[in-house]
Write a structure and sequence with these properties.
With 284 residues, the protein is of the alpha+beta class. It has helices at 37-49, 97-101, 124-140, 174-185, 202-215; strands spanning 15-20, 52-58, 69-76, 82-89, 113-117, 145-148, 160-163, 167-169, 194-197, 223-231, 234-241, 248-257, 274-283. It folds into two domains: 15-181, no CATH class; 201-283, Nuclear Transport Factor 2, Chain: A. α3 (124-140) crosses α4 (174-185).
Length: 284
């Protein structure tokens, strides 16, 4: 773990498809499973149309081999509403219901889902760092926590995603993950391990993290990005807040490329990541 800056690194997206799969996870996740070709193609086509991310999930701990498995469609709406649709499957063809679920809004009132990336076939760092975090969170919230396939940003393992809130955390261990998720569920998102909100783009994510670091934790929907201005590598992000939080915050960032390095444990080449450096932050 190099301690790379985590802010501004969350994958973009507001819709997730979760498919419980208790066998081994291929390198490319759901696409690599040996399932009925027509059903798999239907799910992938519907997910692509909805711009949804398809993740394989399983409960932390020893793998259960018997009983029906679950699937879910999770959606974060622009209004801040969180919607979910859950189903069961035992035969490949049952997964066709996911395509239907992607076409409806889903239901309100479900608790959030806590996803911990443990996809060792994709990157061994995720398994090494993610599994202890999955166990710790699973002991604390057994009904909410799932291990999941690749979510992006292997170098930030252990990665945790709260969905459909759409909040990425990275660089966690067993102790920090429990404390971070306890605060999240209490409506207090802190900047320390925050990679970003998935409905925002990287500079906006970095601006929100800088604001939380400066003015303290806040709930997922207490602030919103009101305007974004760019001039070359210079960004100015305006954020508005609900009382009792800051009414308006202007964040200035400078983007630059970090020195090339191996970004994942299995990365075949050295790459250069974009880092957002805080220039100024002003509340009004």
């Amino acid at each position: 773990m190099r301690g790379d800056p985590v802010a501004g690194t969350a994958s973009h997206g507001v819709v997730w498809v979760l498919i419980e799969y208790r066998g081994g996870w291929p390198l490319n996740g759901f696409e690599g499973l040996d399932l009925d070709p027509e059903t798999k193609a239907l799910v992938l086509s519907a997910a692509k149309a909805a711009r949804a991310r398809v993740l394989l999930v399983r409960r932390p701990g020893p793998r259960r081999r018997q009983g029906q498995s679950r699937w879910a469609v999770l959606r974060h709406e622009d209004s801040g509403a969180y919607r979910q649709q859950w189903g069961m499957w035992s035969q490949d063809e049952d997964l066709a219901e996911i395509a239907t679920a992607l076409g409806i809004r889903g239901k309100l009132g479900f608790p959030p889902v806590i996803l911990v990336c443990t996809h060792g076939q994709h990157d061994q760092c995720c398994a090494v760092w993610g599994r202890p975090v999955g166990r710790a969170l699973g002991e604390r919230w057994p009904e909410l926590v799932w291990e999941c396939s690749h979510v992006g940003g292997d170098r930030f393992a252990a990665n945790v995603v709260v969905a459909p809130d759409g909040v990425y955390y990275g660089g966690l261990d067993a102790d920090s993950s429990v404390a971070t998720i306890e605060e999240h569920l209490a409506g207090r998102i802190h900047a320390e391990y925050l990679r970003g909100y998935t409905d925002l783009f990287p500079p906006q994510q970095a601006a929100v993290a800088a604001m939380l670091r400066c003015f303290g934790p806040a709930g997922r929907n207490d602030y919103m990005v009101a305007a974004t201005f760019r001039h070359g590598d210079h960004w100015r992000i305006r954020i508005t807040g609900r009382p009792p939080h800051q009414a308006r915050v202007d964040v200035e960032l400078q983007a630059h490329h970090a020195p090339p390095c191996q970004l994942t444990c299995r990365g075949p080449v050295r790459s250069s990541a974009v880092v957002y450096e805080l220039i100024s932050i002003r509340a009004s």
